[in-house]
């Protein structure tokens, strides 16, 4: 509620959530006079008898086509007006140019627009705090990127060394010797290194790779384990997927820990 300035119910339906007796459609002026459950039951019976609680009848009146008699009344009676959006007749005491349904729809759109503006303000505030906490980095700086556990194989390093190749709207494009990482990173996602471990000249700018692929290139056991072999002949020939790749070694997930010569 703090970030969008209102409850999710208000942002969805354009009004506050009804609780208690208001949730069953009782008039506000009658609720204060109710004392017991019998009073509530008696009021509901009266509403059903008078037709105030019959929603089906109200819907039929709204969707019923306009007759010629109503059109003639529109021409003779200046008090009858049409809604500017749905063109249904308005009540005489309705001073607005739109009907109740259109007003409700407009209110919902306004609440959602205000919620969107509050989210944008919250995002700007978070970016301001982040910029004050983390100093901006320049192109050519070697940074350290944390590798998620799902992208990391057994025995793989926890971090990946890369170099900043481009800065776009406070977002950093990173590159490695094996290619350019596809995704952009914020300042809080990377940590600068004091020494220059990766040079801009050594970056392969002709190829784009994912962080998982970059982590696999820097690992001695390959990627996180989707590539594995099921060899039963100790991985001696090129029929072994790991040996065929040339740079991959069999890991503990290959061939059910059977004897292997590709380790």
From TrEMBL:
It comes from the Eukaryota. This is Uncharacterized protein. The lineage of its organism: Eukaryota, Metazoa, Ecdysozoa, Arthropoda, Hexapoda.
